[in-house]
Amino acid sequence: MSKSQVQSAKDQLFQYSYHINRSQFSQHKLTIWLKVSRLINASSFLNMKGILIIEDDDNVRESLIELLKTRNYNVVAAENGAKGLMLAQENKPSLIVCDVMMPGISGFDVVESIRKDANLSHIPFIFLSAKANQSDMDYGIKMGANFYMTKPFKVRDLFSTIENLL
């Protein structure tokens, strides 16, 4: 979303004020304001470093969101692989952090789908998992992950990895 498109939507909001009565204006103003807000939110996600978290454990997911927000990352999160793939398509994040063991679509399946999608295949991908055996780590890298980090992890190591991949 370009700045000129956002400005055009804002100009449209003010244009209505001259052509309709007050009650109609309030309704139209609200509708247009919602559209402008969505445009601004979408464009701000594109301008910031967006990170997608795919993690089924609520506590881990919420902790990661809060940690990443302290570094001014724009964070979106999914509780399973299917929703994560959908959010990746919608948001085109700058980086994905994903668990391996999740119900339904596993993290291995997620990274495989991401790497096969021409619109997403360039996105750096980090596994963050309790599966700590070497064969799982090797398989994750073979499937296309840029890095495999095990839980529990050190926050500074996660930040360092993210910064290096971005």
- Average of the residue pLDDT scores: 82
Strand order of the largest sheet: 2-1-3-4-5
From the spread of the alpha carbons, the general shape counts as globular
List the helices and strands in order: HHEHEHEHEHEH
Largest sheet: 5 strands, parallel
Low-confidence stretches: 13-23, 39-47
Structural class: alpha/beta
Helical stretch tally: 7
Please report the total strand number as a whole number. Answer: 5
Percentage beta strand:
5-15%
Calculate the terminal CA-CA distance, rounded to whole Å: 22 Å
Helical proportion, percent range: 55-70%
Radius of gyration, in angstroms, nearest whole number: 20 Å
Any descriptors?
single chain, about 170 residues, alpha/beta, 7 helices, globular
Describe the overall structure:
- With 166 residues, the protein is an alpha/beta fold.
- Helices cover 57% and strands 14% of the residues.
- It contains seven helices and five strands; from the N terminus they run H-H-E-H-E-H-E-H-E-H-E-H.
- Strands 2-1-3-4-5 form a five-stranded parallel beta sheet, with helices on both faces.
- Helix 1 (3-16) runs antiparallel to helix 2 (22-47) and helix 4 (81-91) packs parallel to helix 5 (107-116).
- The protein is globular and about 30 Å long.
- The chain starts with a helix and ends with a helix.
- The model is unreliable at 13-23 and 39-47 (pLDDT under 50).
